[in-house]
Amino acid sequence: MTRRFAHERVVTKCYGSRIQFVLHHRLSVYDPPEDGHRIIKQILWSYGSYAAPLFDYMELIQTERERTQFGGANAADRDAIFLALLRGCANIKDLRRGIRIHENILRQGLLEKCSDALICMYARCGALEEATDLFEVHKSRDIFTCTALIAAYVQAGQAQHALDIFDYMQRECLPPNEVTCVCLLKACGSLQEAVKGQEIHDEVLRRGLLRNNVKLGNALIAMHAKCGAFAKAEQVLSQLQVPNVISWTTLISAYADHGKGEEALMCYEQMRYNNVAANTVTFTCLLKACGSIKALDKGEKFHDEIAKEGLFLDNVVLGTALVDMYAKCGALVKACHVLEDMPVHNVITWNALISGYVEHNEGEQAIRCLEQMKGDGLSPDAVTFACILKACASICALDIGVRIHNEVANQGLLYDSIIVGNALVDMYAKCGALSKARETLLELPERNSISWNSLISGYTEHGEGAKALDCFEQMQQEGITPVAVTFACALKACGSIGAVYKGEDIHNEIIRQGLLKDDVVLGAALIDMYAKCGVIAKARQVLEVLPVGDVVCWTSLIGGYAEFGQDEEALVCFELMESEGISPSPLTFSCALRACGNLGAADTGEKIHNAITKQGLLANNVLLGNALVDMYAKCGNLAKARQVLEKLSVRSTVCWNALILGYTEHREFDQALNCFDQMLSEGLFPDEATYMCILRVCGSIGAAEKGEQICEEIQKHGLLQKDIMLATALVDMYTKLHLLGKAQQTVEELPFRDVFIWTTLIAGHTDHGEAKLAFECFEKMQSEGISPDGVTFACILKACGSIRAVDQGQIIHYELAKQGLLGTDITLGNALVDMYAKCSDFKKAWQVLEELATRDVQTWNSLIAGLAVQEKAEDVFICLEQMQDDGILPNAETYLYVLRMCGNTGALTKGAKYHAEIIERKLMDNNVLISMGLVDMYAKCGMFSHAKEVLQNYSVYDVPSWNLLIAGYIEHGECMQALTCFEQMESEGICPNAATFALILKVCGNLGAVCKGEIIFRKIAEQGLLQNDAVLGSAVVDMFAKCGALNKAHQVLQELPVQDTNSWNGIMGGMIQRGDCIQVLTCFEQMQSEGLSPNAMTFTYILNACSRLGLIEKAQMYFFSMKSKYGLTPELEHYSCMIDAFGRVGHLDRAVKMTKEMTSAGKEVWPILLGACRKWGDVEVGEWAFEHVL
After folding, report:
1. How far apart are CA 744 and CA 777, in angstroms?
2. Around Cβ 494, how many Cβ atoms within 10 Å?
3. What is the distance of C-alpha 176 from the center of its chain?
């Protein structure tokens, strides 16, 4: 009895009074192991969960008694004990003891009898490898064993292995029971094996297993729902005799998981109609459904129900579901309140709130939540860190992201969670730290397509398309297969760098994998790639072969057409899309509006505007508002553009930029500045585009002070150092304001320079006649390793032409030929022709013109303009004929040069012919310059009636046209007609300008009409025209001087606010006319004391005065000083004055010598020399001079 009580104490010590009672009463009359074996067997089958202490008891028995005695016990009892022990181990999942029993079974040679029990034990303990090995060897035909193994595979997430066991059962004709079917249905649902699931469903129906088996029915509902066969799931539900809350919840959960929130809520309504009360799981699924469809009102009602039933108090899962629902619906304040009211919340609860903040772009608040969560004593998990890293990416909080990276690394999460690793790569990529993103990716212990997608996308978004494609290749080299998102990112990279051939390769791979059939996003990416690469036909072809083309696809195509100037096609596509029943998105409307703006199609744009208004899209859509303002501005309807802008509920810098640019493009500069000031008054900050427009305005209107203010603002914000385009705009403004020093200084102070900013500076120097500075900039640019482009070369050729630097021009010509640029750029060819023409090297200009692969009207105009400047009228006419023979029609500029030549040479017949051509080609319509050219031509030819007819027939009543007519009368000596013309002009209400008054003053001077001149002078003074116009001041002085009113002339000269050399020339001319030569020399000295330099006309008067006074030495001194001191080359008039001076005092030898020194003595010289010979009786020289006269 002592032994028995010892055994009893072992068991009692371990498992308490109940077993103690059983053992005491059942074993008290037996000594083990004989009949005691049978009793232990019975206890094991009755109390399987207590197998562990009984196994210890059996070991104790065998220790105290010989194992042989146990081996000799009844075989049936012994087998039953082992089976019972295995069952007990399975029940409590005690794998360690199970293995020891297995070893004991092997020693006893009982493996065959116990194999099924062993397989079940291993399966239920999760040792699937051991269970599978035994199953493979013993090929069990026991339904329970197969079911146990199937259940274990399903539990372990190895659904396919579970279905493999089912296939084995079918081959062995082992019919599944209810439990088997439940497990198999779970496997089918997880794999979405709808066909296999239906097969099991049919088996269940055939065998009638569904009757009164709600658990099996629920499994069927879950399987069909997970496979997306909701109709079948609902059918099963309806066939259940008494569906319970789990049945309904299963279907609701499936709807919620598949994003079918509306259906989930409808299912709940049916559940309530059938008087089935929801449980906490049901409410959890319903809240998930509300969150998925943003059904906040429904979610709040469920919240009230939950609170009413008191389910929320101690259920953290339900509380978390509430937080998640509110967060997904954007009710983040309520989500926060729910979390605060929860008595207990865990990491998942905080994750739901943090995720909500992230999804609604409140990254800073998400980061604050992380700190609060830590303050609650909770440690972030992988999901938390992934959300926070996403928050950092959304607000570019790189410093916080780096801190999180360190925290993650310290916790070793990078090795445990690929989600966190991917989030880190994505954060660095979105923050622009691409090198760090790549480094992080390569350090990850495991990489997948998501890891690479983040990096590829980051490179693409930051303009590094080539590196994105390198990553795409490296990813594949690592054996990672691109998914649809990867292909979409790679296609975007191709589009960004114009890599159409690579894009085509990717397209072919997508087709090979059959991905276009079901993925419209990928189709849209293909269309977008081809559109951005300019291969619009291919983009349209992709759209046509897509099974379904959505609004994104159409928008990409429309945007591509608009981007590459095919705006009419863009609008055709837009109409076609609408005809197919696809509603445009705001982005589609924006693309269409852009096309309207480019075309100037205001009517179509207004129709689109009406459609946008009708759909109510303009209320809060800044993008559409900007597009509308931009469209109206480009169409020139600036009033409408401003009206749209003022009605926008939200105005941005972009929409103001569009309006400011519109005013700038249409030269309404004051309005542009007004908009800029109004934009600032609304608290909006200008961006680089705003400043570029305003700088352009300042340059156009000469607003130097405003320009300087803008420059200070730009420098204050450090924008010049970041944006080379803005710096270029500033340089351009300075050049237009003639502040070339500041322009040069701006360029030199920049940390980096490109070809565009150098070209702008070179163009500025060239336009202001600073060719030498232009050359210096050109050389400095090249010394910095910056290669000139076509525009640079064109500017420098213009500089060469302006100073007739043909040698420098030839060097540029050689460089252009060497680089092969002349064959591709007609602008450069034209610039080269223009340069040679301006340098009067017409032979070379003609040679270049003939060698050009293509010629246009500007090519010929460049040559014709050069010839016209040199008054080579016949050559101009020949060029015009050859140009027309070349199939190129003259334009308005061509005819202006030709008409000028006709007027200058009196070629009236040709002029009339060209007039007829101009009328035939309707070139006079809205072209005032052509009309003025015709007036000038007819006036110079003396055909004043024709000139007046042009004025009357074409309503050319502007001041310049009248000036040309008046100038024509003056040129032909018709001074009275000129005065009459002036009076007619005034009578028709046309106000004379400074040029008109200068002409009429000349008329008054020629006629000696001092009274009329005085009246004109008063009008000029009343209008304040003398303040800034030196030319007009000179004309007044000249008029009074020619009329003999020298005192008045001198008085006017002294009172002029702006004096120049011509003003003094007028006085000196009057003095010569009166014979007051001494005063001329005095006047010259006074002029020099005023700091003014003489010009050629000044020396004509001075030499004339010296000649009349007989001051030949002084005359000779002035003559030589022209070249040596003032850089003036003596002309025919100056030689004539000197010869006259020598002749007057009898120095005929010196007169003859100077005549011979002249390159070409004009006809004016010989009569002067003959007169001197007659005066001094020098027959020999007289005969020589007479021969030249003849």
Report:
1. 9
2. 30
3. 63
What is the spatial distance between Cα 1064 and Cα 1060, in angstroms, rounded to a whole number? 7
- Token pair listed for 787: 């290669």
Closest CA to 90 of 150, 128, 43, 49: 49
Phi first, then psi, for residue 110 (nearest 5°) are -110, 20
**pLDDT score at 423:** 93
Decide: 338 and 349 in contact? Cβ < 8 Å.
no
Here the tokens at position 614 are: 């009708």
Angle among Cα 352, 355, 360 to the nearest 5 degrees reads: 125
Length of the chain: 1190
CB 698 within 8 A of CB 704: yes
- Taking the C-alpha atoms of residue 764 and residue 743, their distance in angstroms, rounded to an integer, is 9
- Fold of the CATH domain 891-990: 1.25.40
Task: Quote the pLDDT of residue 957.
Answer: 66
pLDDT of residue 1161: 65
Q: Are 788 and 796 in contact (CB under 8 A)?
A: yes
> Which residues of the chain register pLDDT less than 70?
1-77, 312-313, 954-957, 1159, 1161-1162, 1190
Q: Which two tokens stand for residue 949?
A: 């007819």
Residue corresponding to tokens 């000083």:
1121
Pull the structure tokens for residue 873. Answer: 């009228």
Of 284, 289, 295, 239, the closest CA to residue 267 belongs to 289
Which 3 state secondary structure label does DSSP give 905? helix
Nearest Cα to 54, choosing from 42, 64, 65?
Answer: 42
Helix (H, G, I), strand (E, B) or coil at 695: helix
Report whether 210 contacts 181 (CB < 8 A). no
The 8-class DSSP code of residue 1059 comes to -
Give the list of residues 6+ apart from residue 452 with CB closer than 8 angstroms, or none: 441, 471, 472, 474, 475, 480, 486
In 943-1029, where does DSSP find H-type helix? 944-953, 959-971, 975-987, 994-1007, 1010-1022
Cβ-based neighbours of 982, under 8 Å, separated by 6 or more: 962, 966, 992, 996, 999, 1000, 1003
What is the pLDDT at residue 955? 62
Give residue 412's pLDDT.
84
Nearest-angstrom CA–CA distance, 654 and 625: 10
Q: How many Cα atoms occupy the beta-carbon half-sphere of 45 within 13 Å? A: 11
Going by C-alpha positions, the residue among 827, 823, 891 that lies closest to residue 857 is: 891
Return the pLDDT at 1165.
83
Question: How much of the chain is helix, strand and coil, in % rounded to 5?
Answer: 75, 0, 25
Residue 325 is encoded by which pair of tokens?
């629902």
Question: Taking Cα atoms as reference points, which of 1006, 1002, 961, 1004 lies closest to residue 984?
Answer: 961
Q: Tell me the chain's radius of gyration from C-alpha atoms.
A: 50
List Cα–Cα distances, 629 to 165, 560, 585, in angstroms.
68, 21, 18
Contacts of 119 (CB under 8 A, 6+ apart): 131, 134, 135, 138, 140, 145, 148, 149
| Helix, strand or coil, per DSSP, at residue 989 | coil
In the block, residue with structure tokens 């009892």 = 77
Helical axes 567-579 vs 551-563, angle rounded to 10°: 160
Q: Which residue, chain included where needed, has tokens 């070179």?
A: 762
Per the listing, tokens 């005095």 go with 1082
Answer yes or no: are the C-beta atoms of 56 and 41 closer than 8 Å.
Answer: no
Measure the CA–CA gap between 785 and 795, rounded to whole angstroms.
19
First to last CA, the chain: 171
How far apart, in Å, are the Cα atoms of 543 and each of 493, 506, 551? Answer: 20, 16, 11
Side-chain-facing half-sphere of 1085: CA atoms under 13 Å: 4
The torsion angles phi and psi of 213, rounded to 5 degrees, stand at: -110, 85
pLDDT at 598: 92
Cβ contact 622:630 at 8 Å: no
Give the count of beta carbons closer than 10 Å to the beta carbon of residue 444: 17
Q: Residue 175: what residue type? A: P
CA–CA separation, 16 and 116 (whole Å): 31
